[in-house]
Design a protein that fits this description.
Holliday junction branch migration complex subunit RuvA, DNA repair, DNA helicase activity, five-stranded mixed barrel, 5 strands, DNA recombination, alpha+beta, nucleotide-binding, Helicase, Ruva Protein, domain 3
């Protein structure tokens, strides 16, 4: 129904952003809300409306390719929107494509909610069907922020990143394994999430 929405980001939390367009605030769930900032800049977010008997939700992405990959992922039996967002939040879709093409189940089961059965289903359903929507030139889902923003509020940023990881489905025990290393860094929320996911997917 909605292909994209253009507007200003007015609110961000670990699960979603709010985009205001003509005095209407759209709640949009996105893989990593912290790639966005609250300001008056007009952003284009490519959206997918998910409808179920007990749920109507908007999911949003920084590019049309991300949206297409999300749609491919939720077409796989066993992967819902939350699981697809967790996979997209890794920031490196080319790794996902490579894992599917090479039938690398060990890599795929590292994502929250993806067991051996679901990984096998992903390979069965998606192998040979992803190259056209994840070109090599696809930008990272994680946008680097200005260096001057990195130094301040790193503790709050780490807390926000931890909450975002929980929302994506990572267990507290898994998160706790990478927190000590993250505490040594002074990063933005977005960068903490990126670094944590790198470590969690090793």
């Amino acid at each position: 129904m909605f292909d994209y929405i253009k507007g200003c980001i007015t609110y961000i939390n670990p699960e979603y952003v709010v985009v205001e367009n003509h005095d209407i605030g759209y709640q949009i769930f996105t893989p990593n809300p912290y790639i966005f900032t609250v300001n008056n800049e007009i952003k284009t977010i490519y959206t997918y409306q998910y409808v179920r008997e007990d749920l109507i939700a908007l999911y949003g992405f920084a590019s049309r390719e991300q949206k297409e990959l999300f749609m491919k992922l939720i077409s796989v039996s066993g992967i819902g929107p939350k699981g697809a967002l967790a996979i997209l939040a890794s920031g490196n879709p080319s790794q996902v494509v490579q894992a599917v093409e090479e039938e690398d189940e060990k890599f795929l089961i590292k994502f929250p909610g993806v067991g051996k059965k679901t990984a096998r289903q992903m390979i069965l359903d998606l192998k040979g069907k992803l190259h056209d929507i994840v070109p090599d030139s696809m930008p990272s889902l994680f946008a680097d922020m200005n260096e001057q923003e990195v130094k301040s509020q790193s503790s709050d940023s780490l807390d926000e990143a931890i909450e975002a990881l929980k929302v994506l489905g990572y267990a507290e025990r898994e998160i706790n394994k990478v927190v000590p290393a993250l505490m040594k860094e002074s990063l933005t929320t977005d960068q903490y999430i990126k670094e944590a996911l790198k470590r969690l997917l090793k």
